[in-house]
Amino acid sequence: MNQRMLCQLLWVLHSSYQIFNQNNCWRVGTLSEAEIARLNRLALGLRVLGALPLPWQQRCSALHEYPHLILETLLMWKQLQSAQQLLNEFPSLRDNHLILTYAAKAITVSAYPYTERRSLMAPVTSKQNPRTSVPAKSNFSNSLSNLQKEARRAFSWTSRDSGSKIAPKEMNRKRKSSGLPPSQRVAWEAMAGIQEDRISLASIDGQERLPSVTMAEGWVLTGDPIKDEGVRLSHRYESAPDIILFKALLSLCSDESTSAKGALELCITQMKQVLSSQQLPLNASTEIVGRAYHATETFVQALIYAKAQLRKIIGNTEMSVSTHKSRDTDDVSSDTGSSSIGSPHTNELSELLSQADLWLSHAELLQSLLGSGVVASLDDVADKESAAQLRDRLIDDERYSMAVYTCKKCKIDAFPVWNAWGHALICMEHYAQARVKFKQALQLHKGDSVPVILEIINTMESGPPVDVSGVRSLYIHLAKSAPTIMDDSLSADAYLNVLYMPSSFPRSERLRRSAEDSADVYKPFSAKDAPEDGPRSNLDKVRYVECVSYLQEYARPELLAFMFRHGHYNDACLLFFPPNAIPASPQPSVHQTLTPSSSPQRPDSLATDYGTIDELCDLCIGYGAMPVLEHVIATRNAGSSTHDPLVSQFMAAALTRICNYCETHRHFNHLYRFQVLKKDHVAAGLCCIQLFLNSSHQEQALRHLEHGKMHFEEGLSVRHKAGEAVKGIGKPVRGKSASEKLSEDELVKFSARVGIQMDVVRSFNDADGPPWKHSLFGNPNDPETFRRRSEVAETLVEKNFDLTFKIIYEFNLPAVHIYAGVAASLAERKRGNQLTDFLKNIKGTIDDDGWDQVLGAAINVFANKHRERPDKLIDMLKSSHRKVLACVVCGRLKSAFQVASRSGNVADVQYVAHQALKTGSLPVLDMCKQWLAQYM
């Protein structure tokens, strides 16, 4: 302040003192409280004006009675350094509410474009009355009004005192040299970046001069509440949103706590207004989105400032509390008191800090979303459900990075994002990147990972993207061939080849069965015999390897079926039979549910992470790949250079399990081949018998029987060698298989019966029916087996009596019953010569009673069906009783009486008499009566 200003100020104060004395108003109790308050405001206003820089003394001279409006004017015009000096000198002017009001204006986002804002900020041109409308109650009021005029004149400068002005640089140096507390230096550094709205100085004749500016320009406060309220409503900071101005304004607050709380509350309020769904609908224009994005930048910086202030306050509070506690550890009451005072305050600050974290997270998220062109509002991140909907919307729009960032900020599950991202990368054939994304997804997945992996496999199997270059070349070809397209059209197959659409239809069950039945069960399997008409995979090598990698790491139980589905049978079998090793036992899954049971099940020693042997066999049968499994096992057994007992034990158990599976499901062709691999000759021989029963023609049946006989002989040879090695061991070992329970005598019998069966098969041809109808094998106690053997024997009598004789005595069949049936059959067909030969063949092989039964069967047929008298056959009977019966059947009652009387058999004579009476043969009846009378 220059010397002239000081002199004029003293003159004003002296004049006011004389006025008060002249009116006798300076006596105690003669002024009202309102007049005293007005006088105090005037005195304070004069002091405030005196503390202002020269330009602003002139601007605010009309507000000398309103010191608070002077401060507000400085805030309006961003004269924060001057405002800080005033608050340091006059603490009573500090109004936190006023400061926070203008801090809110500093981060206010205008609803109009930037080009329109300047027109809204045009200065108010209406004349303002600097005087307040106070009614003149007394001479004091008139005197005070005159004093105001003198004060205005005192603070009005003209050009004549320009020589005594202080240069601006020197004046600024003096202002800067004023002592400031250390706590406010950071605020001054922040204020250094504010572009203050100062009136520029015009230089005339080397002297700096103020332009002719009055309080009517710009935003002017007058002291009139109505007009001032209108000015406040129209006031805006042209640079808003301005974070530097925001921080500088908050530094004027009374303390850091008020500043931090105010900053947080202002940010929350502004964000709710600017970033709501009403302001940012999904169809918002680019201009609205851009304005919201710039607002979020300001909000982020403001919230960071508030968060830093709160952390600083909490740290200072905790340090002061700990210092107070350690000052006197014995003073229990003091310690308790400090805790009771500091704890609630600290809790409140901690709660505010958590709010600051939450809103800062929302602001940062919206800043990133809006900056990347995604329309989002506070309502989209208000809760977890809304955030999940936003996440799904980002996934649908393929904004995966932003979706992950949204999940991180909103603390929601990011698994759907990583999963969808990985699937998208698979479709783009970026498999390495997809693995990274799926790894992230599976780390977040809390349930069973198998469904997730199967979904990945389905995406892989859905087919690779269309070969765009191939389609383009196809189009070029079609374009060039347009003139001759009718003559040389591109085939549909070529088009499908370009689109990577190979056939993937598996073989039908009918084809599989026919191939199985037509396969030569005794032909050694080779690699070239692998099924060629299995399902063709639409996966190339890269995609197939990717699928195997996922399944190996996360879903091993699904790998086996996947390999079969895509025709990699050999790889699937090698999962269970790795070279020179045994597969690892399955690891228990954390997702398996434990079911309480009274007796725990025994673990399957052959089970692996990929499944069980039965599951492997199911797939091999379903895809016709049993020969591949046989080849894998045979190759391993042939090329195994190790004699590890564990490996040998595993292979033996696996072969036994495979054989049991094939026997249970009646796959005897495969059963035989695995029994040969197992070197179980007896079981292989028994399996050949079953294969014989399943044969469809004679040649196949004979081949099965030949191999069965060979296996039984090999089994006997092995038994002999083993018997010599373990001679002396008497008791059988429990748990043996059915083939091992057969004794050597039983094996010899089986071998002999196989030979007989081969002769039986040779005795028939295909026209006589399938070979199983002539089978001699079966349970001897089964009536069906007995009936079938008897029929075979009866049929073979006429063709090969010697073979029939072997069958009868090998299988303990009733010879008489069979011969009688044959005799009756020959008699029925009137094959007398053959019957005679047949009787010659059987004579001596049966006793007299059986001989008579066989003859009786033929006699009955001749007598009853053909009405003939086979006298020759009757004479061949050995028993007189049989002869009597035969004569009666043939109607020869007289001959019957003669035979009966010669034999002296009373019963036979009585039988003949009864038949004579019945038929009316009186002469024969009389003879019978006379003989009976004489004999009796």
Question: Which radius of gyration do the C-alpha atoms yield?
Answer: 60 Å
Approximate shape:
rod-shaped
Fraction of residues in H or I helices: 55-70%
Helix- and strand-based class?
A: mainly alpha
Physical arrangement of strands within the biggest beta sheet: 1-2
- Given as residue ranges, the uncertain stretches (5+ residues, pLDDT < 50) are 17-28, 112-144, 150-216, 332-342, 485-490, 495-519, 593-599, 724-735
Separate helix tally: 44
Count of DSSP strands: 2
**Could you tell me the mean pLDDT?**
75
Largest sheet descriptor: 2 strands, antiparallel
Q: Please state roughly what percent of the residues sit in beta strands, choosing from under 5%, 5-15%, 15-25%, 25-35%, 35-45% or over 45%.
A: under 5%
Distance between the termini: 185 Å
Characterization of the model:
- With 936 residues, this protein is an all-alpha fold.
- Helices cover 64% and strands 1% of the residues.
- It is built from 44 helices and two strands.
- The protein has a two-stranded antiparallel ribbon with strand order 1-2.
- β1 (202-204) and β2 form a beta hairpin.
- The radius of gyration is 60 Å and the shape is rod-shaped.
- Mean pLDDT is 75; it is low at 17-28, 112-144, 150-216, 332-342, 485-490, 495-519, 593-599 and 724-735.
What brief labels describe this structure?
44 helices; 64% helix; mainly alpha; two-stranded antiparallel sheet
Brief overview, please?
The chain has 936 residues and is mainly alpha-helical.
Detail the topology: elements first, then pairings.
Layout lengths: L2 H20 L10 H19 L2 H6 L7 H10 L3 H10 L6 H11 L7 H7 L18 H16 L13 H9 L8 H7 L10 E3 L2 E3 L15 H10 L8 H8 L5 H19 L11 H42 L4 H40 L12 H13 L3 H11 L4 H13 L3 H14 L5 H12 L6 H13 L11 H7 L10 H10 L22 H14 L4 H7 L3 H8 L36 H10 L3 H14 L5 H20 L3 H11 L2 H13 L4 H28 L12 H4 L2 H20 L19 H15 L3 H10 L4 H14 L3 H11 L5 H17 L6 H5 L4 H11 L2 H11 L2 H14 L2 H14 L1
Helix pairs in contact: 1-8, 6-12, 6-13, 10-12, 13-14, 13-15, 14-15, 15-17, 16-17, 18-19, 18-20, 20-24, 25-26, 28-30, 29-30, 30-31, 31-32, 32-34, 34-36, 35-36, 35-37, 37-38, 37-39, 39-41, 41-42, 42-43, 42-44, 43-44
